[in-house]
Specification:
This protein is an alpha+beta fold and 381 residues long. It has eleven helices and ten strands. It has a four-stranded mixed beta sheet with strand order 1-4-5-8, with helices on one face. Strand 9 and strand 10 form a beta hairpin. The longest helix has 37 residues. The two termini are 36 Å apart. The model has no long low-confidence stretch (mean pLDDT 97).
Length: 381
Amino acid sequence: MKREIYDEDHEAFRASVKEFLDREVIPNLETYEKNHGLTRDFWLAAGAQGFLGLEIPEAFGGSEAGDYRFNAVLTEELAKVNMTLPSCLGIHADITVPYLVHLTNDEQKARWLPKAASGEILTAIGMTEPGGGSDLANLKTTAVKDGDGWVINGSKTFITNGGSADIVLVAARTAPEKKAKGISLFAVDTTLDGFAVGRVLDKVGQDDSDTAELSFTNVRVSDADLVGPLDTGFISMMQFLPQERLGSAVTNLAHARQILDETVQYAKDRQAFGQPIGKFQNTQFLLAELVTKAEVAQAYVDQCVLAHSKGELTAVDAAKAKWWTSQVQSEILDHCVQIHGGYGYMNEYRVARAWRDARVTKIWAGSNEIMKMLIGRDLGL
């Protein structure tokens, strides 16, 4: 079914993203995998193309697209290559940077945003903690007032870009007695004394993403590093999470559909019992089901993208998009592996790597179980 949400400007932008990926990124994928992380050259190149500044005002070095559909186009094209690219770039440009755009004063904007747009500053966001998972309201990291600054102690885990970030936006408890209403956000320079990167984690998939453990031992930051009003961090996280979940949904579908399209071609080319395997009724029926499921999910996600571009996307609708697309992606990729047979289990085949890379999407950005709880509460249950 023809998609109607993008116009000529969006498609022109898509062409520029594709050209960038073909020229700068795809030839270096093996390097990223060996390094367990994207290189700084990647970030600088993406910044030079304007891909890191879609959320950043022009006065601070960005393009301020003002239309989330451009973010979605960028995410789709990255996801067609692999899951790591939209994950790492999304954490920086789509997830962390909006906090710095909307919650900071002009001095802070001038300090961080131009270099975030250029790729000279790489960002990460420190929410998840060991033993905490999706339970953000009960985080243990603390920031204690000390003179004209704050002293941060605690740890974070599963932090995308954690091994290479220059600035980590850290959620810390500043008023323990207030529980969820006593959490604040701090932009922590990773060169500060007491900050340390622990393990760059050995994951099942996304080997080219530097997902890391972070620790904070008496890390001293100033009042000028507080992002947003004191004790409003949890509220801010809840306000910004829908965009993260929508970005996850866009990624899930674009990634799954790319591998599905490649699997359809494989079914046309692969011979078994004297004919292409796509000629067998079981394969035809299965691929028909998968394509239909992907297109139906795409229609819903496209409506979510349109709603978000108008400032109308609700947290509940974002939760629906996130959990459903991660489930659909999981089903599609599992079947694609099966259609490839033994080759589908070989890492040299994209379908195998995609299958591994995608499993985490039912867990991150709030587990699917948490998404269903949000939807259930909205139903008054």
